[in-house]
Amino acid sequence: MKLMLISQVAALLMLAGAASAQTNEPTKSAPQASDGGKAVLVEPRPVAESDDAVNAHVLAGTANGLALSLTIDGSTVALNSVAAARVPLRQARPSRDDAADTVTITGLSAGRIVASTVVPDTVLNASEGDGLVRLTRRQVSAVLVANTPIDTLQVSAPATAASATLDVRSAYARLCEAAPGHDWCPKPSPR
Question: For the residues of 92-150, what is the DSSP string, one character each?
Fold first, then answer.
């Protein structure tokens, strides 16, 4: 037994000796900072929007619209936030066949329907110990795709008989303040 332990210790010592004999010097195939090179800062150059591959990719997958958050409490609907944004096309679905409870959100511009989406209504919640619990208060997020500015939202959540008509003209306020001629800004109606 002692002989076996001594031979294992000897083998470990030989391996340690071989490892310490290796050097940590870098290979000279790649230039090193200590070889006398210098860093040069290059001035940024603007890229035309049409030549920017990232812009092209983002524009292909998004569209003008609104991103919004609602709170539904029983039969009332409150607008938490709304913002004009480039919204992902994959999230802006006009209908959903697979959801049992849904919230329908319709965007209007001067009384004309310009966008609509249907999102799941999280009215059912799995609660540990209680099983499925029906919620009366829940939050819903959605996006609407519309190149025309939306001034009014009609919201319907049949699961709790909630509905509302909401004014969302404020969504464009900051944008139109900064760039009054922007496509998303409401145009004055002819009189």
Answer: --S--SS-SSEEEEEEEETTEEEEEEEEE---EEEETTTEEEE-SEEEEEEEEE-SSPP
